[in-house]
Amino acid sequence: MTSVTADAILDRFRRVGAFLEGHFRLTSGLHSPGYLQSALVLQHPAEAEACGEAIADQVRGLGIQAVLSPAIGGIVIGQEVARALGVRAMFAERQDGTLTLRRGFAISPGEKVLVVEDVVTTGGSTRETIDVARAAGAQVVGAASIIDRSGGNQGLDVPYIALVPISLPTYHPEACPLCARGLPVVKPGSRQ
Ligand SMILES: [Zn+2]
What we know:
Layout: H1 6-15, E1 19-25, E2 31-36, H2 39-42, H3 45-59, E3 66-70, H4 75-85, E4 88-95, E5 98-101, E6 112-120, H5 124-135, E7 139-148, E8 160-165, H6 177-180
Parallel strand pairs: 3-4, 3-6, 6-7, 7-8
Antiparallel strand pairs: 1-2, 4-5
Zinc ion (ZN) is lined by residues 23, 31, 173, 176, 178-179, 185.
């Protein structure tokens, strides 16, 4: 695949209903003009493969030897990035609330690892995954995601690339400008 623009990726999301624009009540209770559910794109293997190749194209120069993703959201895209790079894919998962390498996954000392996520919102789980990799001896050479909705505030200490930077504000209902305009609010995923 040749170079993929952010618009093309976002169109993939729109096409499968993974990016909705309007007025939404999120699980957190906050309201937002946009809703993203990357699993709806990644459920289609061809779409997942295309996203993985597009990320891989941007990180090929980093000498990556393995990909590490946080479960569950990062697993599918991590696998596809690793496939495109020809390296192995591992994931970290929560055990008693702490992100951990399980299942015999091991990282060699100094191994060059790329941390891959589907969506970076605050950067918290990416930072946690970087910490897991470093604690296992990795040299974390970068981080990547399909979507960056952090507004540049992900606070990572490694090079970070995203296919789609997007600004999606969230509002408390009482301060929501969409509510103020009288637009009906929708709960994503519910049948209308
Ligand atoms: Zn609202």
